[in-house]
Amino acid sequence: MEETRAKLIAAARDAFADKGYAAASMDELCAVAGVTRGALYHNFGDKKGLLMAVVHQMDATMATHAEEAVAHLDDPWGRLLAAGIKYIEMALDPHVRRIVLLDGPAFLGDPSQWPSQNACLLNTRQALESLLDTGRIKPVDPEAAARLLNGAALNAALWIAASDESSVVLDKAVDAFRYLAEGLLAD
């Protein structure tokens, strides 16, 4: 069963990236994966369930890339800020752009409600709680601050994904994100 799920997710990821969710054919996905349509329905319910599984997998990969990008940093604040910036920068990846940032919200709704985004929110909140405990940031509710920081990063990524000048927008978005986040720092 896991092998079938993995095959369908891999086929869907390629098809969604190349053609977009709407144009990807369930029959073609199943043929590429070497499974029946019944296997798709059994494992994911429908095409939308398959998209959610692909987005979840990609979000997990994005989180791993962000963690790897900041692992060498000793400063907890620097790690938090760099992880947010790395997330924003991933909007330039064509697969992330198409699947996670354009088709995902269009067909799955508000990304802040996706289970994979909730894991990211938890990590951000825990980092902020630690920074709050050490007096590094102003006395602010860590849940509220985490939601606002994650929302800023997500909206910056969405802006980049929708832009025809994504590299120009990236620089603006990263600068603004950095200034907004630094407003949390204690004086």
TrEMBL record:
<keyword id="KW-0805">Transcription regulation</keyword>
<protein>
    <submittedName>
        <fullName>TetR/AcrR family transcriptional regulator</fullName>
    </submittedName>
</protein>
<keyword id="KW-0238">DNA-binding</keyword>
<dbReference type="InterPro" id="IPR009057">
    <property type="entry name" value="Homeodomain-like_sf"/>
</dbReference>
<dbReference type="InterPro" id="IPR001647">
    <property type="entry name" value="HTH_TetR"/>
</dbReference>
<dbReference type="InterPro" id="IPR049484">
    <property type="entry name" value="Rv0078-like_C"/>
</dbReference>
<keyword id="KW-0804">Transcription</keyword>
<feature type="domain" description="HTH tetR-type">
    <location>
        <begin position="2"/>
        <end position="62"/>
    </location>
</feature>
<dbReference type="Pfam" id="PF00440">
    <property type="entry name" value="TetR_N"/>
</dbReference>
<feature type="DNA-binding region" description="H-T-H motif">
    <location>
        <begin position="25"/>
        <end position="44"/>
    </location>
</feature>
<dbReference type="Pfam" id="PF21351">
    <property type="entry name" value="TetR_C_41"/>
</dbReference>
